[in-house]
């Protein structure tokens, strides 16, 4: 389903980034990093008006020829980015939303772990398996 | 835009073939009947029809709309009516109007009616019911013709003939060409009617059309169904909506078609292919991009109609229609967004449908399309609007840039060599697919077509266009704040430059990108970009930067081992070059090469004395993939002289860590915060400010070393208070050439060096020996690893690492071993010599000058301990002590510097005899002198002796004076007791120390023995135990045969030893005192007799008191000088004062209670005084006390000179105090005071000159006056007449 899933800290460094192993990892890193531009743009555009009622899901950040990049920002400004193959047309907006929701839940679990130091890279196995689940489903 | 549409069409052209397929379409309305009449009305009608909107209520619950109606009026022809099965809507006549101005019934009947009937039947034949008959009435005609019939009659007739049910199908238009109110009314009702009917027709006909269309769509699963046919039908509907200026509705039609097609393509991808899709799967032969300048691209439309369109054709046509409508709707930004989606989608769909496309053809198509869309948008928006919406267009710009780049790469336009023949062939093929330029853009210089052709024509042209596009995209990204995207474009530009072999142009873009990746901590990008930077730097010959980057890459865990080794090898290869022999060394930051992890001091305190060895253990983690041999590893050390204020106090070697070494743990380890190797700030650290580095400062005045101020200082303020934004990324090591300055070696410092170290990957331990030649603070500043020509430098060691070296003067201290030293007993004293920088050589000795009061008792086995500076026992030596008459010499064992020599010595302080007494007594009575040591013994009032010892030390020419304080364990007091003429001496000895003593051999002796005097001891036991804080009394009777001398000196002596040490030697204790005027001079006897005739004394009744004072002895020689006598008539008398005092208020003295008596100085002379007393209580009452004092007349000089400036009265008091001792009680003082004032009332409290002649009183020495009736009582009965008995029961 997803070809790349990334969690980016408030300060814009990656907390977690994983992509399908078959493709060029570096390319996804560049894509995700560039998408932060749009995330920031969207967040700041909405943020002024209704910061507290803002929807976390940002929708399609931008399409490229091969991929679609979706974004999601938690209230603590942690960003989730999911990259989906453009050829995968069966994916509806709702499914993307539910993926983000799942990701957010799992991320919350990671943060609740007393042994996790906020700001560190995420190495949780449970989180990993959730992400794997999202990536496997389609492939 | 709507208004721009030309209304060029006119009735004049109506007989020509109606033009359709243009966007200037209007709904067709046919006109039959009187053509000349209609022509005259046409202009007015065409103008007025759209003037007012009409509400259009629509079927299927669609929202009603206000609509301005227009119409294309066409002469009625039968061919215009659609034949059965013709679905064309654009050519469909929605309303048929019959015009007539006939007002003559005859004419009507003759011709018009027939014409109308024919018209009606034709209409009926084609099944249309949308018709209207207009009867125009003009006044002119009315006048010409006779008004035989009322005008209504024609209307009625027509209505009768044609509109049997629909009377509204016939309208009258009155005086249409006149400007009258009637005419206007008539027009307006006519127009309303016309509009209503038109709308009715639309609703009906479009509804029918839509139904048909839906039916057709439902058949799409049937085999013969064709998308293209359906497309044409639905587009017809879109055209009509567009014609009615319902662009929204029109767009919906296209969107539906779009969605339907997309669904089919997706289904095809899922294996469910429709037959008709086959035509779209044909290979792409033309890729000339979108055409958006025409409202309708007829060529493509025809291709679709002929089912000959390729996928790109269909998509292009569909999008061009959507674009047109969106622009009509003034939504240009949706165009750009949809365009991007379309282009992405087309690429995907072609892939999905496996359509064969020439390589690069799609790139051409996308490139052209992007530019076409952008041109179209630029055409309809002004500059400001465009700038405000860069975010919508920038995607297309970037896409175009990417495509051009890949085209350039495909056609060999990017390489340094330029295109080869194969590339040229490819270019020709691609250009062929573009076809010829379209006529619309043929004249424009900047058409996408021309751009692409030009770009592909030459390397230079390509570069120009590519750079133009890239820069435009970057500018736009910057303008809207998408810096990351801008940098990505910049990076791709850099790659282009690198391929072109222009590294200098690439460097800036690469550095810029790298900086941003480093700032945000994206490691993969950092690695990738850094590799490119390395390549660029290598090409540019920036050796030092290249080496720095290589070092970072060599330590980069994201790279493979081979790559890391390669970069490491690059450094090592450079290092081993011995070129040019210059000492030009490359200084690189160490952070990429190795990390300082830990630093360990041995000894752990990091404080050492001059010349001692300090080991530094460095834990260095090498980040290189291979072992690296370092020729030298050095640490530079900053030396700071010891500040006078920070002098290390002697003897406190174990002190720590009040100041100095921050972060030094007790085991002497400094840990360094780990930074990630690639120069990436460890996560979260990038934004967090550095930790505060605080240290304490003390400002002491240089003269007396007193503390002026103290405070806490932050040492890294410059780091904390600088601006946040610009700093983080700029100062990253390895970010580029900017960092070179930071890696400067500091010169002129001491170096710790270790040669030939091989650093293995991972942690390495390196040892240093730290210098300690001078006293002061040594701070480690830099670390430098040298590999051939390369130096890796750690410019700052943080946290601050320092160690201290101190220098110390030799010093001798002598301290008591126990808490207090006791005088009179042998006591142990501790000698400690801190050698400091001095070396005690063999044969050197301490010379103690002996004093008699404190001999040094040396034992033969006296051993000394030698301790090292850390307190370890190093050795033990015996001391030899030689005593000569004046000096005790202690020869010391040889001792190394900074060691401590310890030994004990026994000394004895003799207890000073009486002369020391007053002094020490005064001390104990007065201010406490020994504040320096707070011991319990202060409270017990121990007297002490300060004993000074003068020591000559071998290291100094001056003698050292050391004071020891000894405490006297006993306190002694004597008192003289009398019984008539017999005398007793009592000695009171109190043990004030904490020790229990055995006491023996108490004896009292005269110091100058008088043979006539005999002392007989009344003490029972010889040996006694005196516990701490307890006392012993001893008593002797003094007997003499002849008169004793006036002054007797006694010496009390006893032997004592601590009771808890059995067999301890008894030490003497001597107490000297002196007695004066021992013998009794007067005896005083009192007698109380009851009043006359009474048996007993009674309360309230006066009694007689007789005091008789008797002189017992002849005056001795001593007395003669002492006593004040007066010679009167050959009889020597002395004046005494007596005083009766009752301090318990038992008695009331009636009359004089005191008086003067002249006593003859002769034995047995008696003087009696009578007085009257009254007892106040009944019972056995003690006698009132009777005092006798010497009375000195005013001319006599005081026996003892009073102190200079104390007043006389005080003098007297002190004299009294002294002499009376215990016996003088306060009452006597009081009464004496009263006598005093009685005797000399003229100067009661004059504080002044002592020469004032005044009588004085002086007490007798204790024992000189013996009171015989002391302690006597007399029985007093209650008053006789008083029968009340007072009983006090308690």
Low-confidence stretches of chain A: none
CATH class of the largest domain in chain B: Alpha Beta
Helical segment tally of chain A?
A: 3
The strand count of chain A comes to 5
Overall average residue pLDDT of chain A: 86
CATH fold call of the largest domain in chain B: Rossmann fold
Q: The biggest beta sheet of chain B, please?
A: 7 strands, mixed
- Proportion of beta-strand residues of chain A: 15-25%
Sheet with the most strands: spatial strand order of chain A:
2-1-5-4-3
Name the CATH class of chain A: Alpha Beta
Q: What is the CA-atom radius of gyration of chain A, in angstroms?
A: 14 Å
Distance between the termini of chain B: 131 Å
Structural Rg of chain B:
67 Å
User: What is the count of distinct domains of chain B?
Assistant: 6
The largest contact between protein chains, plus residue counts on each side, is: A-B, 27 and 32 residues
Query: Might you state the CATH topology name of chain A?
Result: Beta-Lactamase
| Oligomer status | heterodimer
Question: Which features does this protein show?
Answer:
heterodimer; A: 139 residues; alpha+beta; Beta-Lactamase; five-stranded antiparallel β-sheet; 3 helices; B: Rossmann fold; Immunoglobulin-like; seven-stranded mixed β-sheet; six-stranded antiparallel β-sheet; 28 helices; disordered N terminus
